[in-house]
Amino acid sequence: MKRQSLIAFDSETNVFHLSNPLISYVMKIEESGVLSHIHFGKKVSNYTDNKKYPRRDRGFSGNVPLHEERAFSKDTLPQEFSGHGSMDYRIPATIITRENGSSLLDLRYETYQIIQGKPKLSGLPQTYILEEQEAQTLCITLKDRDLPIYVDLFYTIYEKRGVIIRSAKYRNQTEQTIWLDKAASFQLDLTNSGRFTEVIALPGAHARERLISRQRITEGVKSFESRRGSSSHQMNNFIALTHTHTTENLGEAIGLQFIYSGNHAFEIEKDQIDQLRIVGGINAYQFQWQLSTNEAFQTPEMILSYSDEGLNGMSHIHHELLRERVTRGKHQYEPRPILVNNWEATYFDFTSKKIEALIDEAAALGMEMFVLDDGWFGKRDADTSSLGDWFEYEGKLANGLKGIAEYAHEKGLKFGLWVEPEMISIDSELYRQTPDYLMQEPARTPAASRSQFVLDFTRKEVRDSISQQLRKILDEVPIDYIKWDMNRSLSDVYSAYVENQGEVYHRYVLGLYDLLEELTTAYPDILWEGCSGGGGRFDAGILYYMPQSWTSDNTDAMERIDIQYGTSLGYPISSMGAHVSASPNHQSGRVTDLKTRGDVAMSGVFGYELDLTALGEQEKRIIKEQISTYKEIRQIIQQGKFDRLENPFEQNIAAWQFVSPNKKEIVVFMARRLTSGQPPFHEIRLVGLEEGMYRERKSSLIYSGSELMTMGIYLPDFHGDFQTEIFHFEKIVTGEEEENASIN
Ligand code: DGJ
């Protein structure tokens, strides 16, 4: 069968049309080479170009320079990428300053190229392809009207995904130096703001990450951003545009997700005639990139998804893309081990004896990995010292680190280790020997946070010294998993080794990516987990190197429902670490049943984080059951299709479901927070099932798929606060289906 091209250019209408069966993206070269945006959304068949953008002479919206048509203005025309200073008063995608101090930039179409597949970016995380045929990339080059300053706009479209991947490359071909003061990855101008009236963002705080905030888009500019040097707990780099009527399963949604781990900004402007402009990429705050003659700057990628199947439809696109074409390596689809982490069991206060006792219990309970958290290196007994000293704390573990790792292996468990490579303590060998490795303006006291400071990762020699230490440990100790933590935001962002200080934030992130690429490539068997005081750097950039991340330091089951629900908007379940911890919970003090804690954590990459040696017999029995249940449903949870059913941000209950890749099994999670004297009944309706009959495992009750979807089942008549339940349905395979399956 002949493959259809995914990208077409019509030289009569000057229209570019990127399309697959799900989406279309349409642009047009207007008069004088202004590149306009026409459509991003559902697939359009047989586009005629007869729906012209209306031309109207609007007061104070002047004309395109060198084009004297009064009704043609950059101030209203939807555009693909805007420069600065030629009568477009909306937020620009880029600001470029030249040696004479001018930042005027008037971008016009220059040329285009269609590339089979997708070119690789160097030094950045990115979406990838497995074979050339699965995607095509359009590169449109814009050029300043007068000067050889170019912006290459990249658009990749996959054959079967509802996404466009965008990025921009800025090139300086002038004889002089220029400075990028703002270098967005994308701009999206939407003509009819009646279609997208709301924005969903994922704000939060430490131990309260990625909570859903849905807001009406009003006049003016609204920005969702991080200035902390990382993607941050406070504002994740994922947003969605929706209509007021968009629900989990119905209506239009556009998802915007940045594949980057540093400062970001999404700016949304509703203009004078109710049109929307969205610009996103690296935050312009404290950013300035110097480009000498013939130099170029490549931005990180932005994922633009479109779904007309509600927020769940949008999330499916991001889940599948991140799982299949962003995460990499041996563990991408592998069942992730059920772990126990000693952090909340011991904090810094542990001995070999204590750790071995935890390992013994973990093995007896059926767990699969032991993770030794903070406190094993330097002279680390508190969070005030030793960061940067990635050698074993002599004498703290009587049998040594290797002894502990071997002990875990003897007991049939994998062994994992915690590190925080980007940081330095003043009380450390590293600081005593190389104080200039600390990021600061020389002779100016930097701000501490958690008594620690940031290493200047813009410098290769700094990264190399950390890499050498880590490699020694990784070579000497049999390690199966690494938890890579980062426990503060950047401050005092200055490097005496970088010529232009506006580059330090981004060069730090590039340095981090460089080290992550080096280590994850050198140790491909290790399962790497990202962490930043919980979920402070939970982003698509980190997932390119490490397929999972610690979701939050908050392990309170009730708060976790919100955190996991919000996170699922843009991130696959296989990326979310979720652990059962002690009750009362260490963060909130809330008391919940072990069952509740287990049920919630089982909706992620499951593990434990409590003192196993302090468990009673009854608790051990429950934990054994949880572990055996999770082993049965693990691949449905980690690799299945996830749908949100009931939104805990709107009500006292929550529900979600997972459908196995072969569609034969469904796991449903339900929760109710607070009880009441006369609780209402709730019917929970499932989605996306096949025809046929399903048996629920615990009750053995049989339901038809159609019944489960149209009528649903009742939320259990719970008694008391903080109650949860998990249901596991299996499709009853008929003789005929079995036969068909064996033929196929
Ligand atoms: C923050 C992490 O999120 C915790 O899980 C733990 O590893 C601590 N850091 C250790 O310092």
TrEMBL record:
Q: Which Pfam families match?
A: Glyco_hydro_36C, Glyco_hydro_36N, Melibiase
Coiled coil location: none
This protein's encoding gene: galA2
- Database matches in InterPro entries: Aldolase_TIM, Alpga-gal_N_sf, Alpha-glycosidase_related, GH, Glyco_hydro_27/36_CS, Glyco_hydro_36, Glyco_hydro_36_C, Glyco_hydro_36_N
Q: What does the similarity note say?
A: Belongs to the glycosyl hydrolase 36 family.
Q: What class of enzyme is it?
A: hydrolase
Q: What's the name of the protein?
A: Alpha-galactosidase
Q: Which residues form the Glycosyl hydrolase family 36 C-terminal domain?
A: 654-729
Could you tell me the keywords of this UniProt record?
Glycosidase, Hydrolase
Which reactions is this enzyme annotated as catalysing?
A: Hydrolysis of terminal, non-reducing alpha-D-galactose residues in alpha-D-galactosides, including galactose oligosaccharides, galactomannans and galactolipids
Q: Does the keyword Hydrolase apply?
A: yes
| Record bears the keyword Aminoacyl-tRNA synthetase | no
Q: The Glycosyl hydrolase family 36 N-terminal domain covers which part of the protein?
A: 34-291
Q: What is its EC number?
A: 3.2.1.22
- Cross-referenced PANTHER family, in alphabetical order? ALPHA-GALACTOSIDASE C-RELATED, GLYCOSIDASE FAMILY 31
